[in-house]
Structure formats: structure tokens, C-alpha cells
Amino acid sequence: MSTTPITPPASAPRSRKPSSAFGVRQLAASLPDAFRKLDPRVLWRNPVMFVVEVGAALTTALAIAQPFLGTAAQTAASPTSLAFIWSIAAWLWLTVLFANMAEAVAEGRGKAQAKSLRESRTSTLANRVASYDAAADAGAENSELQQIASADLTLGDTVVVSAGELIPGDGDIIWGIASVDESAITGESAPVVRESGGDRSAVTGGTRVLSDRIVVRITSRPGETFVDRMIKLVEGASRQKTPNEIALNILLASLTIIFVVVVLIINPIAAYSNAEQSVPVLVALLVCLIPTTIGALLSAIGIAGMDRLVQHNVLAMSGRAVEAAGDVTTLLLDKTGTITYGNRQAAEFAALSGVDAETLATVAAASSLSDPTPEGKSILTLATEQGFTFPTTVDGTVVPFTAQTRMSGVDYADGSSVRKGAGSMVSAWVAESSTLTDAQRAELDAIVTRISQVGGTPLVVARRDTSGVASVLGVVYLKDVVKTGLAERFADLRRMGIRTVMITGDNPLTAKAIAEEAGVDDYLAEATPEDKMDLIRREQRGGNLVAMTGDGTNDAPALAQADVGVAMNTGTSAAKEAGNMVDLDSDPTKLIDIVGIGKQLLITRGSLTTFSIANDVAKYFAIIPAMFVASYPGLAALNFMGLHSPASAILSAVVFNALIIIALIPLSLRGVTYRPGSVSSILGRNLWIYGVGGLIAPFIGIKAIDLVIALIPGF
Amino acid sequence: MNTTLLFVLQLGTLILLLGLVYRPLGDYLAVVYSTQKNLRVERAFYRLIGVNPGSAQTWPVYLRSVLAFSAIGVLALYVVQRTQQILPYSLGLPPVEPSTAWNTAISFVTNTNWQSYSPEATMGYTVQLVGLAVQNFVSAAVGIAVAVALIRGLAARRSSTIGNFWVDLTRGVVRILLPLSVIAAVVLLLSGVIQNLNGFQHVTGLTGATQTIPGGPVASQEAIKELGTNGGGFFNANSAHPFENPNGWTNLFEIFLMLAIPVSLARTFGRIVDDHRQGYAILSAMGIIWIVSAGLLTVLESAGNGTASQLAGGAMEGKETRFGIVGSAIFGTTSTLTSTGAVDSMHDSLTSLGGGLVMINMMLGEVAPGGVGSGLYGILIMAIVAVFVAGLMVGRTPEYLGKKIGAREVKLASMYILITPTLVLAGTALSFAIPAVHDSVVKTSMANPGLHGYSEVLYAFTSAANNNGSAFAGLTASTPWLNTALGVAMLLGRFLPIVFVLALAGSFAAQEKVPTTAGTLPTHRPQFIGLLIGTIVIVSALTYLPVLALGPIAEGLK
Questions:
Q1: Would you call B410 and A248 a contact, using CB atoms and an 8 Å cutoff?
Q2: Would you state the CATH architecture of domain A125-165+171-219?
Q3: Where are the bilayer-spanning segments (chain B) (predicted)?
Q4: CATH annotation of A345-479
Q5: How far apart are CA A389 and CA A362, in angstroms?
Q6: Were A360 and a residue from A351, A472, A545, B268 both cysteine, which residue would form a disulfide, CB within 3.0 to 4.6 Å?
Q7: What is the ipTM of this complex?
Q8: Domain coordinates of chain A in residue numbers?
């Protein structure tokens, strides 16, 4: 039995640190792709740039034909020299090329990542269990194994993977436990434990088993594995236009149509005044007016947005999800791990009167023996620290904690049992066979309230003896530690109009104390998965967009229902399937970053659109006087930039129009700076920089270019 | 009195008057279009036409009702004009010539009131009263109805309907336009506007020359002409005629009438969407454009062109001395910023840049405050475009009043914005591009050669496509080409935008409202008002600069 990796494993963890460095090297590398994208069949998808390409082709044709037409073509009132036409043609081609380069550079960054992912994919051999029988031979120790290529594995196949082998495909562990090196996917070199059952059973194809032996049921079809999807995503191959991008494209196309009309009607009217323009001049005007800047950068901005997520080790299954992240108005945050450090520590045994501390401590410890959670372990630690002794083996059935019962314990062989858990659930369990006296109930409530009010988690401990009489022994105080710096982040979110809701299984009092300490807007206490689902539906009915994180199988419906569902990579495949993003670091706090990235994507699009449209004003002031000054000398008054000649003015506008694309590529890849703040301040800032700046910048740019062009003979 | 003081006083009076009616009239309009109660006369009318006033329409049904009603209006008006010789009170006038009749029918149904003819010499009293006056009322009511439908769409949640057109139309006429125009007519009558059925009076003057003095039911026509932003004059000279507009006070009152409903609709809007601040924001954008434009025109006309006008204290050619520069400038600005198109001075005689400015007023899309209804829906469309770009800049899917601006909404708003400029530009260009038409336009229609003649044509298409109706009076528009082409421009310029507005209303009505949070782009603050004005100005400036450069700008910078 062996699984032979044909290619060397991806050993070193890959760095996903933002590589915003953008230089000549990247531009040069993107050139071949940029030329390939000149194909009109590809370009027509971008109507703005397609118009530029048609204009470029037309001008080139005219430049070629000019010498053969003699003086016939030179009757127009505007510049018609051959050098001028060739210059316009050349710069129009460059405009298209620059736009293609922007897209190619954005795609190029993903390609490097895709390459290393691809190395971990293909050509693994898998040990398929010929006929798996879970009951008779769960570990597939005696079953017949077939060696097949991993690419041939299909949904439902069962494979065996041993230490040192690559896992051949995505799946769930159905038998065994193993430590797995997932660095190929997550970049994180420390191995993680994966085991059958529970929420840590999912394994990803291409990761390596370091110890032990596991049986895995394949859960993905060939070509649709997690790695396959990841490759497609980072390459941008499966990129579809997002709703806002479609809307923006419509606006840009409409502006383009208006300007085509504006330019088409110039000559019929100008002919009346004997101010007819040559075709290259009209093409130049058209290209300067249509929103080429944003048209050129739009898809690069989208690709770069996905890429920024990847740099944060988050995989979005669609661009739509990234955009939705920017729109989120309600964030559901699990308390544990997100708001608090997760590991609550037992801090005190509070026994009811008539119960001695030792009884409480030993029962609590006994019920925690088979409880693998840090909380359970901390109870054992506290009991030991306080000098209590307790048996170290369990003689009975372990009742594990579930989200529905919210308690755990042991049913002993002698008929007695112990439980610890949420107050309401344990009380209900006690009430099944016995009733508490009012005094006991009052005392219990007092303790629970005291602990809850300080933000602790009260864990009620109860015992049912062999005769079936149940009693509450006391309460374990679990201390919850809120992460530092969260309050400020939530305040930021509030100013952005995002409400934070803390989800916890704790009782309302505990939840309230922690919610206040952390600064969240609301909380959902004693939450079952159904409550969570209801909350999401309720928020959505009110028109809110909801984001949440989750990892368990029981989170899957809520993850699917939420507008942005971020599944933790450590979670089950059901959760990963249901969510529309996967966080490879499994850090629920990252939800806040994801929202920021979504907003930044939209802001970048909006800002560059504003910039692009504002630019038109200056271009008009360059081109309109240049076109008509020969017929109406009075229009020279509009040429307040003092541009050298009509030919140089028009060419300067075209050159500026092309160069601004290159100049803005880094910005579109990096994204417009986004600082959480009030909407008015964000809008004000961007209006100043990209609106007013967009009005002024081209005046300076065109004048500067004109100063250079004026030096060229013939202009 | 010096010009500045006069300007401030006149504008101040208008603002005061408008301030007085803004809340009561706006709120009254909101009640009229929201209440479930019907008047007896309305119920009788609903029974007559077989409409259930309680049933609301989806947007396609609402649209079909608008189009069907307007089509019948065009047909009826055409027939009345073509058969006027057999109608009473025809004053002995012959049937109206077909191309003029078609142009006029469209013109009045589209609330344009472009007149390619001389009314007192073409239309008898029956045509004026039964044909034109009826359309003055109903075309205005259609405009308000469409605007109210859009407001309802913005205010609704998950609704498939946007109101009932027949109810909106009836209430607009019965409860708003009729009573208001009666009051306005009485005021005008008391101020010296004539109202009779005297026909033509032939008198012999002191010098022995005979004159024919027309009479007519002018005051009643004048009231609805301004109130419904129609603008079709009883006389060819329109509001420059002393029988229509006898003095400075009536001049100011007529300006007020043009503004009353379009301005108050901002209040109605705020009230129905349950946020008065939104109404004030729209009002502010409208007001700022109006004040700045009126001020600019006053400055340009006061400065005049050349020495003759400077000696006269301003460009007085084509202006009435009883109104002066200021009265004429504010009237001209208001008439072109609303879709009225009435004139108390000849726009052909404005200074070159002044003439360009009144053209720009119309090119802004007539949104400050615009025609009755059409002004409000026009500025709301611009607000949607402004919100779209600005909304992206704050990192949210853009939304206006809790309604998301998605691909469908942007598509409809873009189409709306595309229509009018395309009609203006294509119409003007075709007038020069088609050889046979070129001859007719240049040799017959244009009163002036060169740049000014071209401006007359550009003005005509701008006025028609924007449903304004005013003219650079020098143009002879009763040629087959201009009658036809301007008719098409008016028709498409009115009803295609209405198609998109109603589609938007339907699309908004179906949406759930997104709750307002701190992350929502506020659309009531000065920041947004500035953005809205900027969007309106930039969009039209970018579209029209080249054609303006070849006309008024080239002429003005000579």
C-alpha cells in the first residue's frame, strides 16, 4: 500500500504577503497577454475599449491611405498632417494596449499562486477501497485496495491515506485520526489534527498526512475540488461580472453612446459653418470623451479585489460575495474565538449550601474527564490545583456536548449520572425527576446571576443518584476573556453603519455582560442553530445584509442563508460548501477585514469613474478650441491653457488619456485608501481627490505634454 | 432703479410667494394623490369611463393608460383643427393646414406648446377652448401623475402597483388645476388681462390707418398656460402681448404661476416618502440652479452686445420696456427652466451668450424646477445617477431612499438621459445633413444667416425635445420638415422618458426598503445637493458643449 507522489510536494509555506510592488518588470511580463487581448472577439466585452480599438483601426487605415488620396483628404479645417494622423493612431493603439496591460498585470499576480497550487494537484496515486464496509471493516484494514490516479476519483469513493502520503482529493475522514500538513493550501506550516466525526473531519486534496492512517470518503467530483476552484479563482478564469460591475458597465456604455452621437453630429453642423473636421480629429475627440480611464481599469480593479482577499488568506467563491461584503449591515460574530479568546478557564467552584466544595469539584471533574474542550480541561486543572482528587477513568457512557442540549456529562454503569452545562438545560434535566426547593432555586439563581454579571459563564453541575433523585450541586465559574482592541473596531463598524450581533450559547446575563465589555450592538444568548437561522431571516426581511462565520455542519444552513458566509478552513466540508468564502487561517475576526475589502473594491470603482468623467472637462477645453479656432478665431479664448497649436493640443489630450491609464494601474491594483469613518467624510474625501482632482489634474497633465510635443517639428 | 436692486426685489418677492405656498400646496397635492375618497363628480366620471378607482395598476398598465390617453388626445386635437371651419366661433378661419395641425396636436398633448403658427390668425375660439385649453389641463395632469407614480414607487415596499392613472389624471384636473387656474384667472383679470369672445375689432386709428384688434378668452387661457407649464400663447407674441401680460405685476405673477406647482411637488415628494428633508434637498438643488441662471442672464443682458445696447442701458432689443431687463431675464429663465416656453421677450434677440444660456437651461433637462411633474421626475433621475456614482464611492451598493440602484435601475436612468440629447443633436444635425432639408432650413426657416441662424435651429430642437415650446422667434417653423421633425422630437422627447420613469417606478415599488444606517449615503445634506447640481451640470455640459461652441459660444466670443 503506497501512495506515490509523482511531483515533489510543495514543502515551504508560501507567503501571501501583499506584493503591491508594481514596476516595469511586471508591465513587461504582461505585454504578451496585453497583445493577445487586442483580439476584437475578446475586447468587445469591454464596450468602451472596443470603441477605442475601432477608432485606432480607422485612424491607422486613414494614415495608410492618406498619401494615396493626395490633397483631397486635406480640406478639413482641423489638423491633417501625416505625422499628426500617425501619432494619433499610435497613441490610440497604446491606449488599448495599456488597458489590456492593466488587466494582464492583475491576472498575472494570481497566476503565480495558481502555479504553485497546480503543482500540488495532479498526478497523485490514490488507494481506493474496492468495496468499503463501514460496519465490518471501518478501518479498511482487510479490504482490497486499488491504485488509481487521483484524477479518476469520483464522488463517494473511499480511499485510505497513510503517513507521508498526499490526500488524493477533498473529503471527510470516516475513520481514524491524523495530523495533516495543510501548508500547501493555507501557507501555515504547523500541522493540524483531523479526525473522523465532529467538525474537524474535512480534509483537502493536495495536503499531506504526517502521522497515522485515515479512511477518507471523497466529497468532490474530479475537476471540482477545492484546489481546482482555488486555481480558477486566483487565475480569474471563472471571474464573472458582479452586479455593481454590470450596473457600472451599463452607465459607461450609455456615456459612450452619448459621446458617439455627440461626435457623429459635429460634421453635419460644422459643415454649415465650413468648419468640418478630419476623421482622426473626431476619433481623438471621441476617445478622449468616452470614459476610457475607468473602462480600462474596471476589470483590473475587480481581479485585484479578489486578489486582496487571497492575500488575506480568504477565498471568495464569487466576486458577488466580495461585493456583498461591502454592503453588509449586520455582522453575526460568534462570541467564542471571535470576541473572546475562546478558552474559558474555570476560576471557581461555587457550591450550593449543604453541598461541600469537594463533592462539587469531584463531580464537576468527573463529568469533564471525557470532555476534550479547553473548558473541560480547565475544570480538571482547577480541581487538581485546589487539592481535590477524583477518579481518572469513566465507568459509563459519555454524553457529549451538542449545540442542542448544551450540556455534557456521563451516565454511569450503576444508573447514576452527572451533567454540567447551561443553567436552563441542566435545570430542565433535574426537573425531569425531581424538583428544587425554592431556597435552592433562589440560591442557584443568585450564584448564576453573580457570575453572569461579571461576564463569566456559569456552568451548573447536577447529579442524579442511582435511585433517580436529582439535585443541583453548584456552579463552576468559567471566566471569559474578551480580546483587546475589539471595542474600537466595533465602534468603527458602527460609524460605517454596520451592526454587530454577538452569538453565544451563554445565558442572557452572561451574554449581556460580555456584549457590553466588547462593545457589540446586540447579542443573541442561548443560541441554537435554529435561533441563528431565525435571526438571519429576520434581519434579511428587514432589508439587512448579513455576514457570519461558521465551521460546524450545523452552521451550514445559516452559512448558506447569510449573504456573506465565511466558512473556516478547519470546518466540515458541509460548512465550506455552504459558505461563499473560506478563511484558510480559520480566524473569525477576519470577517471585519473582509467587509473592508468589499467596501474598498466599490470605492475604487466609484472614485475612478468620477475621476474619468471629471477629466472630460479639461479635454474639452483642449480639443474644442483646437477644432474650431481656424473657423472662429474667437474660440481661442477657451484655450486658456495656452496650448501650442491645434495639432499639439489634440495629440496632448490623447497622450494624456493613454498615460493616465498606466499611471493609475498601481492604484487600481492596490485599491483606493479606505479608512473606516462616517459616510460623509469618506464621500467628501473621495470627491475632493477624485472629483475635484479629476477636474484639475488633466489641465496640468495636458499642458505638460503639450510643452514636450511643441518641441517636435511639424506640431 | 438699478438692476441689482431690482433683481433682488423681484427674485425676493418670488421666493417669498413660493415660500408661502410651498408647504400648503405641496401637502395638499400629497393628500390629493394619497386619499381614498372620491368626489361625486369624480365617481360619476369613473363610472362613465368604466374605471374602478380603488384598483391600482402595475407599471405596464399605468404606462399603457398614459399612452392610450395621449394618443386619443393627439387624434382629437388633430380632428378639431382640421374641421374648425364647421365649428362655431371659428372667426371665419379655414381648417388648419395638415402638417401644422399634426405638429400642434403633438405639441399640446406633450405639454410642449410649441407653436409653429400665429395663433390669432390660425385658431378660432373653439379650437382654442375645446382643443388647446383641454390639453393644457390634461397634459399637465399627465405630467404630475407620472411624477407621483415614481414617488409612490420610491415610497412603496414590495408592491406590484404604482397607483391608478385614471384616478391620478382626474384628481389632477378636478382638484388641482381647475380650482387653481380659476383663482389665477381672476387675479389676472383684475390685473388687466382681457377675457371676452369679441373676435376681431376693426378700428381706425388717429392717423387714419385701420387696425384689427383681436379679443378672446385670454385670462382663463393665460392662467393654465403658466400654471400647467404649457406656454402656448393665445397670441403670437405670447406673454409679451399687452393683452396677455399687461404690466410688471402680472409679469411677476405669471412667473410665480409657472413655478408654483413644480416647486411644491418637491414638498409632495418629501411628504409621500415620509422624509421632508429629501424634499428640501431637491428643492435646494432646483432653487440654486434657478437663482444662478437668472442672475447670469440678467448680467449678460445688462452688459449687452456692442455700443448700441450699452447706450440703452442693456440689450433692450426684443424686450418690453414695461418689464425691463430684470423682468424679462427672470421670465425667460423661469420659462426655460420649467417646461413652459412662454416668452415675454424675444429670445432670438437675447445677447449671444444670453441666448446660449436659455438654451442651456433647457439642456439641463428642465429640472430646476422643470415642468409640472416632468421636472420632479427629471431631477429624481439625475439624483439616481448621482447616488449611483457617489454610493460606490462610499463602498456600498448605491441606494436612494432605501431602494437599491442595480443594473436595471441604472439602465433605465441611462436610457432616460440618453433620449433627449440624442433627439436634440440628431434633429439639428439632420437639418443640415440632408441636402433637400438643408435648403429648406437655410433658405426658408432661418431668419438670420450664419451662426445665429444655426442657433435658431439648435434652439428649436432643444425646445421641442425637452418639451419646452419656446422659440428663437426668428425661425419659420411651419415648413414640412420642421413641423414633422419637431413633432417627432416632441413626441419621443415626452413619452420615451415617461416609459423609463414608469418602469423605474415599477422596479422601485417591487423592492424592499433597505433600512437607513450610518453607512447609508445621506441624500439630504448640502454635500449631496452639491453633488446633484454637479451631476446635472456636468452631464449636460459634456453632451452639448460642441454644438454650443459652434453657435452661441462662437458668436459670443467673436
A1: yes
A2: Distorted Sandwich (2.70)
A3: 61-80, 129-151, 172-194, 249-269, 281-303, 323-343, 350-368, 374-394, 415-437, 484-508, 528-550
A4: 3.40.1110.10
A5: 7
A6: A351
A7: 0.94
A8: 47-113+234-310+597-709, 125-165+171-219, 345-479
